[in-house]
Amino acid sequence: MATNTNKKNSLSGSYETSKSVQPHSIGWRQLFRKWQIKGLRALYKINAPTDLYLLLLASLVGLFTGLGAYLLNIIIDGVHFVLFEQAGFHVFNAAVADYMRILYPAIGGIVVGLLAFYLSPEVKGHGIPSVMDAVANKGGYIRKRVAILTSINSGTTIGSGGSAGKEGPIVQIGAAIGSSIGQMFHVSQRRLKTLVGCGAGAGLAAVFNAPIGGSLFAIEIIMGDYSLGFFAPMVVASVIATAVSRALIGSSPIFQIPEYSLQSPAEYPLYLLMGLAGGVLAVVFIKTLYGIEDIFETKINLKPWVKPAIGGLITGIIAFKFPELYGFDDSATHTALIGRTEISILAVLVAAKILATSFTLGSGGTGGLFTPSLFIGAMFGALFGNIANKVMPGLTAPPGAYALVGMAVIISGTIHAPLTALIMIFEVTGDYRIILPLMLGTVAAVIVAKALEEESIYTMKISTFSSKTAGGKNIEILKAHKITNLILTDVPIIYEYTPFEEILNIFMKSHYTTFPVLDKNNRVRGTISLRELRPVLFDRSVAPLLLATDIMTENVFVLDKNNTLEEALQKMEIDDSDLLPVVESPETMRYIGMVAREDIWRMYSKESLFTAENKE
Q1: What is the pTM of this model?
Q2: Quick count: other Cβ atoms within 10 Å of Cβ 96?
Q3: 32 or 80, which is more confident
Q4: pLDDT of residue 6
Q5: Closest by CA position to 322, among listed 291, 297, 354, 299
């Protein structure tokens, strides 16, 4: 009895404590929610557009992401100043300071390793795969601390000399900001994912001064969905983030280059050949990065926080000979774009950058792959252009033109997104005159890269820590579940000789919009949906003469009960069907019921949420 009494007192004490703390801890949230409800009701009263609320939230995401990009620049510049300038010139003499450059990336690696190990493991690496995983597998949920820790970790990695870019971290920072704002405003899962995409696109737009490219990147890579509903908020967030970035950082294109154009039609085969070769080089980069990452994760048995220091040390050794490889320095890319890099060093810089980036990020450093890809592409393109100039003098453009196309080729080959690569290169260079070679090279690179390696540089990473994704969806969940539990048996049946007026009556009484058409033996003959009914409604003169067989669409696709969600969705999306009939087998075509696309997505959303929760 004493034990029970103590337990009761303990519980009572805990309750009283929580009761006393609760008003202080959640009072502001209740007040915030109260004002949010008032705001939503005000929008309803003024008959505001239904998407205005989402656009306002996207604006907030763009604003804070633009500020986040500015903060990231400050951290990178600060770390660089302390290590390479303050410590280099004031603490050590000139000879020692020069050799200390080898150690700076290792020092940054230790800091990054400790922060990632003890506070937030998801901030290590190149960031974008974590965002894609959050959209596909976690309903858009990202922990709030990610934005702050990614800023510190990536700023330290890049500022200390690590071979990485700002775009991966700022995409992760922006996505975390979008997720945090969505959580704060209690938005639906669909809108939370949208805000994550807004933050990701806004981050890339702010760093590269490229609002169109940022929007396309979010839609093509992060969301995997080209719906117009996603496009408007992505654009709003990207434009606002870019405006903030331009006000605080500057509005000029990242690379100032001469105007390049096609010199002669004879260059088309050369650009095609360069695209094909660039696709191979992109796969080499992907394989090298993940090969080195695998060595650090499985072969090196040290504390996880030590590994980024080892990768940083190796990067420091490589960059000691080639300081162009430091992540904070893009002068080598600019030099290649204006055609002033010596041909003898171009191939060496390509190989050195691949290795330096792979050791920096493969060991656990934090940074992006976009900027290193631009570097590799510029050097590869300049090398190809120099060779083309020697083989076909007078018929080919300067090497800088090939460097420009080379950047798009490697970006396209690594991320498997030619449209994003194309637009991004336009915006970071301000040059639209060489569009045809760019299009030819990027498409060729993607074809070759996908043929050699199905996974992109982002999706390959996801497969190492989560489920396989494509188009913003968890493919493993879609493959693992069958449609059996989703079969609807209450959908009204239309028989093949049913007259039009009776069909119209069935449509009016039912909430379904697609109905199966069966013969007298209950075999599926086809379906009738609103798109079949609509032409008849606009020409009622022939309607009394029509039967179901005259109106229906014959079976393009049917499902059987053993089909997976993935197979069902694929069939539905090809023909844009909302419901499809389920049959015992394609041979008998005997009707069982219908499956709705919205039910598949509802089941997928629940399964992806619980799967992600179980993995945490």
Answers
A1: 0.78
A2: 10
A3: 80
A4: 46
A5: 354
Q: Beta 524-529 vs 514-518: how paired, if at all?
A: antiparallel
Per the prediction, the chain carries an average pLDDT of 85
Q: Tell me the domain boundaries of the chain.
A: 52-248, 267-303+320-467, 481-615
Q: Which of 1.25.40.10, 1.10.3080.10, 3.30.390.10, 3.40.50.2300 is the CATH number of 267-303+320-467?
A: 1.10.3080.10
Strands in 163-254 per DSSP E: none
> In terms of pLDDT, which residue wins out, 375 or 603?
375
- Structure confidence at residue 381 (pLDDT): 94
Residue 21: per-residue pLDDT: 43
Q: Record the tokens describing residue 601, joined without a space.
A: 């997505």
Q: What is the percent of the chain with per-residue pLDDT over 90, rounded to a whole number?
A: 37
Helices (H) and strands (E) in the chain, counts: 26, 9
Contact indicator for 133, 389 with CB cutoff of 8 Å: no
Give residue for tokens 């493993």: 476
Close Cβ partners of 171 (under 8 Å, ≥ 6 residues apart): 127, 128, 131, 199, 200, 203, 204, 217, 222, 368
**At 582, is the secondary structure helix, strand, or coil?**
strand
The dihedral through the CA atoms of 539, 544, 545, 550 has a sign that is positive
User: What architecture is the 481-615 domain classified under in CATH?
Assistant: Roll (3.10)
Rounded CA separation 224/197 (Å): 10
